[in-house]
Amino acid sequence: MPFLFLLYVVAYIDRTNISFAGLRMTQELGFSDAVFGFGSGVFFFGYTLLAIPGAMLVERWSARKTMAATMIAWGLVASATGFIATRHEFYSMRFLLGIAEAAFFPGVITYLSHWYRQGDRAKAVALFMAAIPVSRVIAAPISAALIDANWLGLSGWRWLLIVEGGPALVLGIVSLVYLTDRPRDARWLSSEQRDWLTRELQREATDKQAARMPLSAVFRHRDVWFLCLAYFGGTTGEYGLSLWLPKILQRVGGLTAATTALLTAIPSMIAVPAMLIVGWRSDHLGERRWHAAVPRMIAGIALTFFAIRSLNVAIALALFSVATAGITAGYGPLWAIPSTILGSSAAAASIGLINAAGNIGGFAGPSVIGWFSTRTGEYAGGLWSVAAALIGSGIFALLVKIPIKR
Q1: Positive or negative, the Cα torsion across 82, 29, 12, 318?
Q2: Range of 394's domain?
Q3: Residue 150 belongs to what H/E stretch?
Q4: Could you point out which of 36, 145, 343, 378 has its C-alpha 20 to 30 Å from the C-alpha of 52?
Q5: pLDDT digits over 180-191, tens only?
Q6: Distance between CA atoms of 55 and 400, rounded to whole angstroms?
Q7: Does any domain span residue 184?
Q8: What is the model's pLDDT at position 406?
Q9: How many other C-beta atoms lie within 10 A of the C-beta of residue 189?
């Protein structure tokens, strides 16, 4: 788990560091907020294309090889984004980054189902996805240090993208050596531990065998589509907020780029314990739906308060901290649901589908906020839309039916 956590920290930095680069990039290249929002979100067009095949590759081929290839590819594309000059190049590189990274997240969620029992998965997913806020805490000071650099005739925002893409290349190579596909292959476990874990996972798989469904049925499964919509609302909020937070804070407080980058770490620092506590509580009580839904609804309410009236930086940061904590805290329980209600192959396909359909929100959130900002000169309309999506996410999570264990 620590290694997977590190991989996701790097992945999320490369996915969202454009929010820091945008503090300078949009001025230098003359991009409007609409261009920046669309380019930030177009990542998810490419991401959606390969999300389902990526999850299936991990299930049927090799997690180790899939993740290694994915990381090397996205590291190259992430660094190359530092050399763009036009909006079309911006769109193209973000689209390619989405394609390069598509297999990683659904692959890891599938991979965790090979290693953790059902009763431990919300906590495991929450621990893994705590990398999201941790990545912001790490990226903020690094980005603040790089954003105003001017080395070799290249602007700081370019160095930010070039430098932060490098770790993915190195870790991609390390993944080939370090990761193992299944517990039975793990030399760092004792033979007794390998045998026990393999038996437990096989027993759970056998228990679900009777309820096994063909993959075609996954696409007709009502609860899978509710999960898609729940995840869509969550990613609309997550990426709408994370990719625009630096620009919103800068406008609210009239701050420098470096100060703004540092302040964006605060909401993420609040989100880490919230995510772990909700994931632990979900496993402890064996309850998923309410633990996935309530944090998202709270996040939506927090953004609604911000959109209603103009606020100072301190109050804005407090509301964004509540929203960030709520958005991320619901992930662990939500991603524990597919492998609970479906067999392994069907769960892998559903995870890919949920990730693919849901991540359309990763395009919608940034784009809507950018569109409203360009049209009205304000972020309020976009934040209203994002808040509604988050509340809707909670409602759809509550509509999922989870079989009661007897």
Answers
A1: positive
A2: 2-178+193-205+214-399
A3: strand 150-151
A4: 36
A5: 777 676 676 677
A6: 22
A7: no
A8: 45
A9: 16
